[in-house]
Amino acid sequence: MIIGFDAKRAFHNTSGLGNYSRDIIRIMSTHFPDNRYLLYNPKKSNVERFVVNSNVVLKYPDKWIWKKLSSIWRQGPISGQILSDGVDIYHGLSNEIPRGIDKKRTKVIVTIHDLIFIRFPEFFKPVDRRIYLNKFKYAAQNADLVIAISEQTKEDIIRFFKINESKIVVHYQGCHAAFKVAYTTSEKAIVKSRFNLPDRFILNVGTIEKRKNALTILRAIRDLDVHCVIVGRSTSYKQELQKFIAENEMYDRVHFLNNVSMAELAMIYQMAEMFCYPSFFEGFGIPIIEALFSGTPVITTKGGCFSEAGRPHSVYLEPDDISAWSDTIRSLSSNSDLRMQMAVAGSDYAKQFEDENVGDNLMSIYKSLIDK
Fold first, then answer.
1. In terms of domains, do 320 and 267 share one?
2. Distance between CA 300 and CA 1 in Å, rounded?
3. pLDDT attached to residue 311
């Protein structure tokens, strides 16, 4: 089978969509080596983000004009290359597919991660919302099959795009291999020293933006003797956090980190006492899975997709209930036995997100589509 992937995010995105794309490509090419995998990339990346296997071929625009207009190439002209390459399945890994694919010869799948821009329009610029709506809706309506990364996303696709439920399948994503490694004490000590981490801390991971709601954590620990480490790319929202830190003299208890490798991040998870994730809304919440694989207890948001990622032994709270967050952090911080119970149960639950299960489930989806 020849499988084509939209690989733009795999090569040019360092966070969620990029990690998802890289993991899917890595898992499928490793566990199903007899297939041929074509990665359609609009332009070469300046950074080597992952190693490709021998059965993986990089594909770039084949005409000089599309090399110059690579963003347009992804939207339509790429379809000619997909046809000439004899692709059996084309999988749009990040919410969109090109127009004009010959669906008599190539089956088309799209993964839709979330419709947050519809649920929470205040977090997005109007022009971005229009672009996302156009691309996401077209993909959902015209793909042969839609993969939703959670039941929550599936419900949103049905609700907002009026897509028939029979056309949508939920497929949970995997987790980077770095989070499944048991690092040594000396390895973690090096990371602790490099980032000047405190001996005990709670952790938050994700883009530092309003929707992720890190301010709830800071408000919750204001009167607690607790350090917080926040790892992620900064946006203007960080200024709001820094203002709160200054007003409450929390300089020495809040630590912002960036430029952290996957292995370093995995070790930071393993050193954390607990993982706090009060995001208002997510498509799935992969940091929760990273925490579970790391043996780190999770406190996250009640409702939405969060229980799909964190159940059954994570703690769920309203994202703006400061008192509940404060009480729970205080309770967990002082109860090592409970933290250990949550860690063991979470690690056991995370096994369903192992590469083998993710790969087998996705291949079943591919084969069922081909068989039709």
1. yes
2. 40
3. 83
pLDDT band at 355 (very low <50, low <70, confident <90, very high): very high
d(CA 219, CA 282): 21
Rounded Cα distance, 9 and 21, in Å: 7
Q: List the CATH number of the domain containing 337.
A: 3.40.50.2000
Give dist(CA 342, CA 339) in Å, integer: 5
Tokens representing 40?
Answer: 């359609």
Give the list of residues 6+ apart from residue 296 with CB closer than 8 angstroms, or none.
203, 269, 270, 272, 273, 274, 275, 343, 346
Confidence of residue 322 (pLDDT cuts 50, 70, 90): very high
Distances (CA, A) of 299 to 213, 316, 317, 333: 13, 6, 7, 12
Amino acid in the structure at residue 123 = F
Which residues on adjacent β-strands are paired with residue 359?
none
* Number of domains into which the chain is organized: 2
Q: What are phi and psi of 77, to 5 degrees?
A: -60, -25
For 227-368, list the strands marked E by DSSP.
Answer: 228-231, 254-257, 274-277, 298-301, 315-317
**What is the distance, to the nearest Å, from the Cα of residue 53 to the centroid of all Cα atoms in its chain?**
22
Per residue in 291-307, pLDDT (tens digit) is 999 999 999 999 888 99
Q: Say if residue 7 is in the same domain as residue 115.
A: yes
Respond yes or no on whether the N-terminal peptide bond of residue 42 is cis (omega within 30° of 0): no
Element of type H or E holding 184: none
Closest Cα to residue 203, out of 278, 110, 281, 130?
A: 278
The boundaries of the domain holding residue 330 are 177-351
Residue 367 and residue 300 share a domain: no
Question: Per residue in 217-260, pLDDT tens?
Answer: 999 999 999 999 999 999 999 999 999 999 999 999 999 998 89
